[in-house]
Amino acid sequence: MDYFQYKNGSLFAEDVAVEKIAAKVGTPVYIYSKATFIEHLQKSQQAYRELDTLVCYSVKACGNINILKFMAQTGCGFDVVSGGELYRVMQAGGDPAKVVYAGVGKTDNEIIQALKAGIAYFNIESEAELENLIQLVKIANRKSQIANPNAALRVNPDVDPKTHKYTTTGKKESKFGVDIERAEKFFHDYGKNNPVQLCAIHIHLGSAGHTVEPYIEAIKKVLALIERLRSDGFTIEALDVGGGYGADYVTGTAPTAADYAAAIVPLLKGKNLRLILEPGASIAANAAILLTRVLYLKKGGEKKFVIVDAGMNDLIRPPLYGAFHFIWPANVSEKLTPHQRERDLKLTGTEVVDVVGPICEGADFFAQDRAFPPVKRGDLISIFTAGAYGFSMSSNYNARGRAAEVLVDGSNFSVIRKRETYEDLTALEK
Ligand SMILES: *Cc1c(COP(=O)(O)O)cnc(C)c1O
After folding, report:
1. CATH class for the domain made up of 4-32+285-429
2. What pLDDT does residue 172 have?
3. Using alpha carbons only, how large is the chain's radius of gyration in Å?
4. What is the per-residue pLDDT for 66?
5. Which of 107, 320, 355, 427 is most enclosed, with most CB atoms within 10 A?
6. Domain(s) of CATH 2.40.37.10: residues in the chain
7. Is the peptide bond before 374 cis (omega within 30 degrees of 0)?
8. How far apart are CA 213 and CA 193, in angstroms?
């Protein structure tokens, strides 16, 4: 679901023709739909309303402070994985009491920053990390700077969401969390008489799973763990089930928030657990396109290349994860208007092309061997479902300034991050 639709052959973001944005702001440009973000967030919040639930949007998916701001105003909490992300949340006016903080390598400075902010839970990934946190809390306590923090133990339920190996994080051999067998010993060692209140369990299976089953399997495993811990006298007040819910890169392929909730809510009803969710992609992915312009057409052997002005520095998901993005010209004839986003949308009149960027790497592609309408130099092309891990993973490789970000709200649009200039590129080197 999103608000990027064709009207009479022209692509609109909500009520604004994307062509109009390109004319004013240039390309490449990330165009976000505020209504899409809010609708996805609210659907998640409502799907779990039977339970005491906090939705903590995963900042790393897309963290522009102007976006975090309206998310916070819609009651959203945040999942952060660094001090920089916590800083973004605070800049956006987010409530630190609704922040959960995961990550295997939190530094002392980051931990102290989060202690001072007063976040909801540190999601603890190892014994060594918790011992360090306890030390830092003791030091801070002596200076009476902070309240004692709450922590969740991140456990590895050892289930496979059957996604790309780089986005699988809940299997035994992953660097994240501790094995479920070790969790009980962990609580016996650290779960009582500590300045850090270990009182919750966290799981995160990885990203882009497209079925509900791994969540059911993992939640059943941790519920059994929670029962054992409670009968040993430990207080477990919350279960954080992480993120990784499917996003509709291809129309109609991902379970909805309601589908996930229909499976998850019955498992947790009456369990006296506060539920925390950390969706990233399922909220942000469909909420943006990356709009780019055709620079050149060329042939290489039998292949046809459409060379565009966006590159892998702007959107790295296709080469990094083998990710699929639906791509289509922003202006097409009525008979070439796509009514949904499919992996192989073959309308009569298309040809097979690679859509590639200008960067000096063979991996700089957005699509390979894709059926595509004929285009010419200067045409605008939309790379859909680019809101998650798009801009947030972008870089300055090849000394390219990062793209501008534009937020559309109804019939209005505003630049929420300026295009980087050459001066920006060298500013910190002087
Ligand atoms: C990345 C991440 C998420 C969000 O994952 P999505 O696939 O974008 O939903 C949630 N929780 C943790 C701990 C993460 O690292």
Report:
1. mainly beta
2. 66
3. 23
4. 98
5. 355
6. 4-32+285-429
7. no
8. 37
Going by C-alpha positions, the residue among 80, 161, 127 that lies closest to residue 169 is 161
Q: Which two tokens stand for residue 80?
A: 């952060």
CA distance 297 to 15: 31
* Peptide bond between residue 28 and the one before it cis (omega within 30 degrees of 0): yes
Q: How many CA atoms lie within 13 A of 409 on its CB side?
A: 9
Length of the chain: 430
pLDDT at 344: 85
Position 147: which residue type? A
Distance CA 181, CA 178 (A): 8
Cβ of 298: how many Cβ atoms within 10 Å?
Answer: 11
Fold classification of 103-277 (topology level):
TIM Barrel (3.20.20)
Segments of the chain with pLDDT less than 70? 162-173, 208-209
Distances from the Cα of 267 to the Cαs of 104, 228, 239, 279, 381, in angstroms? Answer: 29, 17, 12, 19, 44
State whether residue 206 is helix, strand or coil.
strand
C-alpha 1 – ligand 1 centre gap (Å): 20
Task: Extract the tokens encoding 148.
Answer: 């004692």
Let me know the angle formed at the C-alpha of 282 by 65 and 269, rounded to the nearest 5 degrees: 110
The residue to mutate among 59, 79, 282, having the most atoms of ligand 1 within 8 angstroms of its beta carbon, is 79
pLDDT of residue 63: 98
Distance 151 CA to ligand 1 centre (A): 18
- Among residues 162, 178, 5, 40, the alpha carbon closest in space to that of 102 is found at 178
Q: Do the beta carbons of residue 312 and residue 361 sit within 8 Å?
A: yes
The pLDDT value recorded for residue 210 is 83
Residue 200, phi then psi, degrees to nearest 5 = -155, 165
Which of 37, 163, 201, 278 to probe ligand 1 with, by most ligand atoms within 8 A of CB? 278
AA letter at 211: T
Per residue in 126-178, pLDDT (tens digit) is 999 999 999 999 999 888 778 899 999 999 998 877 666 656 666 666 778 89
Delimiting residues of CATH 3.20.20.10 domain(s) in the chain: 103-277
Retrieve residue 313's tokens.
């520095």
Distance 399 CA to ligand 1 centre (A): 29
pTM: 0.96
